[in-house]
Design a protein that fits this description.
heterodimer; A: alpha/beta; Rossmann fold; 2 domains; seven-stranded mixed sheet; five-stranded mixed sheet; globular; B: alpha/beta; six-stranded mixed sheet; two-stranded antiparallel ribbon; 12 helices; 12 strands; thiamine pyrophosphate (chain A); Pyruvate dehydrogenase E1 component subunit beta (chain A); metal ion binding (chain A); THDP-binding (chain A)
Chain lengths: 331, 422
């Protein structure tokens, strides 16, 4: 039957199942083996699979990300963990220039079946250098796939898809979601359950306005929707699940129906995921169905401050989403 | 000419038998340069060999092999180094000669095509360094792996891509080895991972390939090449650490051609002992202008890796005749005299030619014939590279992903879309 599973356990199950299924899959990163993972995502895996399959690395992001990409080029299927995506900036050349572009540059001769995963975006009180969202950075690059799970089902299914995908996939997890439990259907508990990359999910159908989000803000949107429902406003909440390739068709179909759009993300506003959604809506059929300009809720345009009151006001909260909805609907 | 079975390195008095290796007798040549005697003729060598000569000699009779002395390698954390003698058979010599000459002429043709603006963008030429890629390939197996940086045309050839596909890639045609998608710096083939444009990035990649070699347990190794300029990249030190920690079967090869673009090694490095840069990793410094010295050193290094001892560093001291790239005349930071001196005293092809001719492994005429054949091959390849059509526009979006259902890729505006298949 249905089970309550935390995102952490869902990721752990996905890793376990894929390590078992394909002996070319291996995990490397800082503290992934003997420490059971900095956030315990890989708990028990080193004990089960040993040194060959679960590898602790020194603190050398550029080096070990490059090693992981090379291993992928030579036929292995690495899962390369960044302790947070902030540290991926040290290695970003390997992600973009070595992983993302090689299939194209080699005219398909050298695929790079690698997964880069780890927590992305704001946490709680970790301050500016540890709170950046990289969805827009990686989403910008052809050759990559970028996924951003919200629920346990998303986490498990997307990680399995990512590992089975023959292309470089960046999986942007969220540290604050790791401990959150979600319902996992029986189907989702199966070892063959995958969530397709490139398909958004309508988490909550609605008629008056479309809310599009990825990762933790999906939960905020659902909360905002239930508050607004009491006032008679029915929000359709779309969980993007994949940043690249983005399923804009699902968003368009929804906007055609609701005539209003609010995008919600944790990252900074300029050149962000919401900006991309708005631009694409303008280019497509849904533009003619908008009754009001599309609106974005984003992180505040500042480096993340430390003090709680400041930090809380730097990420889009439920009240900010509700305000944006009412502004858009002019109520 | 019959291929004679390999004999042990001859000494002064021990060449017997109907096809005696009598020219090879007593051929302990210092660095293989100075000719000790002429090609043919009985006036050579020692008493003993002259006795046997008369009955077997004929005009077309070459030696089957010869032994050469090669420079001793400087060692770092190694008790012993590679052999200081190298045996080269006639067939090997002819093959090394032809390969190096092909690369030389291919690079010169690329220079020509670039000046005619038929090749665009970046073009980093390898002429002068031929002994490195040819010596390496002679010491490893096709099942071994190799990755290098952007001065890659020589390796692309030795790893198996035909000249016409290399030139057609440089001219951006669909017959290029990357179908025109990659260009000079992004050519690949089986067990050859490019061609990499970001200085130093190929080194961790190479260690990752070595990790895969170890993981799969197939006794394969990976050579990760980089230049004297790249040797100062931090990611290389990160890679040394992990390769040593995990005993990866990786040979780190620094092709030290004395200049990182316009900066001489003295101006870029606090320590120019690149073979010692691996610190806890053993290292060798090798004469990179001598194809046999390179070959023996790589054999030694490959054995080190295959025996499970972990990585090893090699520094090949070499030289490039061209500037850093075609946009660099290469004379603002070094003198024409320096370039000319290397050409006249240390050219790898000349060195091999002299060795072969002076040891009766080949004749001057024979090598000239090879030159003619090589020129013809390069001309034909260039003809192909300049007449083959450019890749069709419809393929602009292809190969974004691998093993993916077809999808559409956006062009310069929202109405222009390209299909992407793989």
């Amino acid at each position: 039957g249905v089970a309550q599973v935390t995102v952490r356990d869902a990721l752990n199950q996905a890793l376990d199942e894929e390590l078992e299924r394909d002996e070319r899959v291996f995990l490397l990163g800082e503290e992934v083996a003997q420490y059971d993972g900095a956030y315990k995502i890989s708990r028990g895996l080193w004990k089960k699979y040993g040194d060959k399959r679960v590898i602790d690395t020194p603190i050398s992001e550029m080096g070990f990300a490059g090693i992981a990409v090379g291993a992928a080029m030579a036929g292995l299927r690495p899962v390369c963990e960044f302790m947070t995506f902030n540290f991926s900036m040290q290695a970003i050349d390997q992600v973009i220039n070595s992983a993302a572009k090689t299939c194209y540059m080699s005219a398909g001769a050298i695929p790079v079946p690698i997964v880069f995963r780890g927590p992305n975006g704001a946490s709680a009180g970790v301050a500016a250098q540890h709170s950046q969202c990289f969805a827009a950075w990686y989403g910008h690059c052809p050759g990559l796939k970028v996924v951003s799970p919200w629920s346990a089902e998303d986490a498990k299914g997307l990680l399995k898809s990512a590992i089975r995908d023959d292309n470089p996939v960046v999986m942007l997890e969220n540290e604050l979601l790791y401990g959150v439990a979600f319902e996992l259907s029986e189907q989702a508990q199966s070892k063959d359950f995958v969530v397709p990359i490139g398909k958004a999910k309508i988490e909550r159908p609605g008629t008056h306005i479309t809310l599009v989000a990825h990762s933790r803000p999906v939960g905020h949107c659902i909360e905002a929707a239930s508050v607004l429902a009491k006032e008679g406003v029915e929000c359709e909440v779309i969980n993007l699940r994949t940043i690249r390739p983005m399923d804009i068709e699902t968003v368009e179909a929804s906007v055609v129906k609701t005539n209003h759009l609010v995008t919600v993300e944790g990252g900074w506003p300029q050149f962000g995921v919401g900006a991309e959604i708005c631009a694409r809506i303008m280019e497509g059929p849904a533009f003619n169905y908008l009754d009001a300009p599309a609106v974005r809720c984003t992180g505040a345009d500042v480096p993340m401050p430390y003090a709680k009151i400041l930090e809380d006001n730097c990420t889009p909260q439920v009240k900010d989403i509700i305000f944006a909805v009412k502004k858009t609907l002019n109520i | 000419m019959a291929n004679q079975s390999k004999q042990s390195p001859p000494s002064h008095n021990t060449t017997f038998g109907p096809k005696a290796n009598w020219f090879a007798a007593g051929l302990r040549m210092p660095n293989g340069h100075a000719p000790l005697y002429g090609l043919y003729g009985p006036g050579a060598v020692s008493e003993a060999s002259r006795v046997m000569v008369a009955s077997s000699r004929n005009y077309a009779d070459f030696a089957s092999e010869a032994t050469f002395e090669v420079k001793k390698c400087d060692l770092h954390r190694l008790e012993e180094g590679p052999s200081t003698t190298a045996v080269m058979t006639r067939d090997e010599g002819l093959q090394y000669y032809k390969t190096m000459q092909t690369i030389r002429r291919m690079e010169l043709k690329s220079d020509q095509l670039y000046k005619q603006k038929i090749i665009r963008g970046f073009c980093h030429l390898y002429d002068g360094q031929e002994a490195c890629c040819v010596g390496i390939e002679a010491a490893i197996k096709p099942t071994d792996h190799l990755i290098t940086a952007y001065r890659a045309h020589g390796f692309t050839y030795t790893r198996g891509v035909p000249v016409r596909e290399i030139l057609a890639e440089l001219t951006g045609r669909k017959g290029g080895c990357a179908k025109g998608k990659g260009g000079s710096m992004h050519m690949y083939t089986k067990n050859f991972y490019g061609g990499n444009g970001i200085v130093g990035a190929q080194v961790p990649l190479g260690a990752g390939i070595a990790l895969a070699c170890k993981y799969f347990g197939r006794n394969e190794i990976c050579l990760a090449l980089y230049g004297d300029g790249a040797a100062n990249q931090g990611q290389i030190f990160e890679t040394y650490n992990m390769a040593a920690l995990w005993k990866l079967p990786c040979i780190f090869v620094c092709e030290n051609n004395r200049y990182g673009m316009g900066t001489s090694v003295e101006r870029a490095a606090a320590s120019t002992d690149y073979y010692k840069r691996g610190d806890y990793i053993p290292g060798l410094r090798v004469d990179g202008m001598d194809v046999l010295c390179v070959r023996e050193a790589v054999k030694f290094a490959a054995e080190h890796c295959r025996s499970g001892k972990g990585p090893i560093v090699m520094e090949l001291q070499t030289y490039r005749y061209h500037g850093h790239s075609m946009s660099d005349p290469g004379i603002s930071y070094r003198t024409r005299e320096e370039i000319q001196e290397v050409r006249s005293k240390s050219d790898p092809i000349t060195m091999l030619k002299d060795r072969m001719v002076n040891n009766n492994l080949a004749s001057v005429e024979e090598l000239k014939e090879i030159d003619v054949a090589v020129r013809k091959e390069i001309e034909e390849a260039a003809q192909f590279a300049t007449t083959d059509p450019e890749p069709p526009l419809e393929e602009l979006g292809h190969h974004i992903y691998y093993n993916e259902p077809p999808f559409e890729v956006r062009g310069p505006n929202q109405w222009i879309r390209y299909k992407s298949v793989n």
